[in-house]
């Protein structure tokens, strides 16, 4: 059996109607997993479900729309997944928000709280909802999609970077707590990826040039290039890895 085989596994992927989340869900389905597509808009989720089921058969994917800022929505996401598939083996906390672009001196309290709520606290909520069954089975993989922003300072996305640095520590701490139960928690730290979420950074030719001229690979990444890291962290290929931040950035941070 392939180390990357996910046959029989059930994965929730938040923010999976587009971009990195969609690519992760699609590639986990390729490896045999059942996947739960979740974002705020039901129509967008269903479009992804139809595409995955069209390739891999009905029942491979289901849609459970949820707003990550709502604890009730997240609990419903977990409950409906358990009802449909009977368990959750893999949790990918990918959804995030960044409502503010500029120096930290200009951010409002409301904007700062929203970033921390959506990018850190919602991950904590969802993990706490899913972890008990993983601990009981003594098997599970939790993946937080963070960012290389959490490793560096920035004049424009500092607030977002603070939240992503917190995600690294969330993974480290939960890895310590869950490790004795064979439940692993890791982060992926993407660099600049060609997604709608990062459009402001890669559509501007000057910003794109700044982002890529010092990068060893001389380009930005594609969503599917993050999906490979997620499949690795979800699968038997990474069973001795926990509490880590896997940097996938084209070499930018070196």
From TrEMBL:
Organism for this UniProt entry: Cupriavidus respiraculi
Top class in the EC scheme: oxidoreductase
Keyword Oxidoreductase: yes
Gene: hdhA
Record-linked Pfam families: adh_short_C2
Protein name as annotated: 7-alpha-hydroxysteroid dehydrogenase
Keywords: Oxidoreductase
GO MF entries: cholate 7-alpha-dehydrogenase (NAD+) activity
Family classification: Belongs to the short-chain dehydrogenases/reductases (SDR) family.
């Amino acid at each position: 059996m392939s180390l990357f085989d996910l046959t029989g596994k059930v994965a929730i992927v938040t923010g999976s109607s587009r971009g990195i989340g969609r690519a992760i869900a699609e590639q986990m389905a390729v490896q045999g997993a059942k996947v739960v597509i979740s974002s705020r808009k039901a129509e967008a989720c269903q479009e992804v479900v139809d595409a995955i089921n069209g390739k891999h058969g009905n029942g491979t994917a289901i849609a459970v729309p949820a707003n990550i800022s709502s604890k009730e929505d997240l609990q419903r996401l977990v409950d409906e997944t358990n009802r449909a598939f009977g368990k959750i083996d893999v949790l990918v906390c990918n959804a995030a928000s960044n409502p503010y672009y500029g120096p930290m001196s200009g951010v409002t309290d409301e904007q700062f709280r929203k970033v921390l709520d959506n990018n850190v606290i919602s991950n904590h909520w969802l993990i706490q909802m899913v972890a008990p069954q993983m601990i009981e089975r003594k098997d599970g993989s939790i993946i937080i999609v963070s960012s290389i922003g959490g490793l560096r300072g920035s004049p424009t996305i500092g607030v977002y970077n603070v939240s992503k640095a917190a995600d690294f520590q969330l993974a480290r701490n939960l890895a310590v707590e869950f490790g004795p139960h064979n439940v692993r928690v890791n982060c992926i730290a993407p660099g600049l990826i060609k997604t709608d979420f990062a459009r402001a950074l890669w559509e501007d030719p000057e910003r794109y040039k700044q982002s890529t001229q010092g990068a060893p690979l001389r380009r930005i990444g594609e969503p599917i290039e993050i999906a490979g890291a997620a499949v690795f962290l979800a699968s038997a290929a990474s069973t001795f890895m926990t509490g880590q931040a896997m940097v996938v950035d084209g070499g930018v941070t070196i």
